[in-house]
Every structure is written in structure tokens, then in C-alpha cells.
């Protein structure tokens, strides 16, 4: 699924078997999925830490804007680009939208 323009009404969540993990040996945060792992930078960690499976993409973006005092235009683009890549890799799923990432 390619989702270049995710709807703000979609609810992003980590599917079963995918989780955030603190790698204490290396001192890094990683996203673990079956047979895959992805090292996260601070931005990726901040975005994924906001996903709870209940809040819409718009609510996640607003929360990040408030936390980092950044303009919504900048945060929105970064969040959507990052999550689109993870949706393509099936490491993030979307509820409340169609297969193209548009709100229902």
C-alpha cells in the first residue's frame, strides 16, 4: 500500500508483532517487527511514541506540534512522510481509512 497523502482522519497504529524497544546494550531505540528491526532517530521515536491506536493522525500531529513548539506545516509533512514509509513496509497500519490512506 502506498500512502503518499495520508488522511488526517486515519488512525495509525502498530500492528500485532511490531513494537518499540529500548536496546540497552547499544543505547538506541528500535522498532521491532517479525524478522526485521529498524533503528530510530529522535524524530522517528517521537512520532511512533505518539501512536496509541485511538488518536487520529491529526491528533498525533497536534500533540507533536505542542510538544516541540513547531509549525504544523513542518510537523505534518515530516509525520506523513515517515509514516507512509512504514505503511509501505507494513510496520504501521491505518484504521478508519481506505487502502489509499484516505479517510472513509
UniProtKB/TrEMBL annotation:
InterPro entries: PQQD, PqqD_bac, PqqD_sf. The keyword Chloroplast does not apply. The keyword Metal-binding does not apply. It comes from the Bacteria. Pathway: Cofactor biosynthesis; pyrroloquinoline quinone biosynthesis. Keywords: PQQ biosynthesis. It holds the Pfam family PqqD. NCBIfam families: PQQ_PqqD. Monomer. Interacts with PqqE. This is Pyrroloquinoline quinone biosynthesis peptide chaperone PqqD. It comes from Paracoccus aurantius. The gene is pqqD.
